[in-house]
Amino acid sequence: MKSTSLFLTACIFILNATPVMPHHGRSNFLYDVTNSIEGKITYFKWSNPHVYMEVTTTNENNETETWLIEGGTLIALKKQGWMKDSIKLGDDVVVVGTPHKNSKKRHLLLEHIVRKDGETFYMAHRFRPPPPKKENNLSVNTPTVTPSVDFAGTWARGSNNYVTGRYFQPPIDWPLTKLGEEQVVNYKEHNNPAYNCLERGLPFLPVKNYNHLWTRFDDRIEISHQYSSSTRTFYLNQDKHPENLKPSLLGHSIAHFDDDGNLIVDTVGFTDGVRWGLAPGLESSDQKHIRERFNLNEDGLGITFSITIEDTVYLTEPVTINGGYNRVADVPFDPFFCDLEAAQRNDSLDN
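Above: the chain's sequence. Below: its structure in token form.
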């Protein structure tokens, strides 16, 4: 126990000394500062995981500069009224954004952009008040939220999730094996599989941001994700996992309802060596075993869950994380595609 305690103390010191980058390195920006630049759009790519554009401008010394502007996901921007052709090459614009901490980098995190015709497009920002809603984007046929009676429906991650403010950091408080300790100590943000458009599987997918669509069938429940190309299947009429399972990123899940109506899910058969397959900086092995419990609230508008993670290669004992979902209006999910060029534009890869 003493060695583990000393290890965790060392980890805490290291991680406090080196800033931990959250999703796609956005701690690189000065959130209490805004800059404004005026210029012409010379590059624009409508893509996931983030939209990027370049604006060429003339500085106070009459020198030409090109600024990289980082936007949000297509899902987030569409919610603010963006369309693929809202911004085009050659547009004259004014861009307001949060500057990079490194003043030598001409890199802004977008807050809003104004076209020459005065049309303004905002980016939702978790560190700022929500941008104003446009009247022309408000529908008189606003979808209503209906309670779920069997877990079916569209669900958004709740604010009480373990992932909130935590799951994008190395798990220094988990009971780690020596191999797990070594991986956490050597955590580097540029190893984030998202920069190569790679999925992390479980337990990250169930607590990932954006909406989850649960579809109920007689023999299974299928779960698709608004920001992933992966689909999970819970098989309801199987007492045990098939023999000789072919390993996969999401494994094989069997489920049943207990006497209290909780949905109990057991998943095995995972691929070995998944980068960050347990948590940031921590791989997973083919020994990974995930147990989940989902409880549908009495009003049908929420789900609470717990996820217990086992992996004897990296964990000395199981770890349980908790969270919840809120029922939201059903909307069509666009097919998700991660653009490798856009994913690799993040400057955390330079570190």
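The helical segments are 2-17, 74-79, 178-185, 204-207, 340-343.
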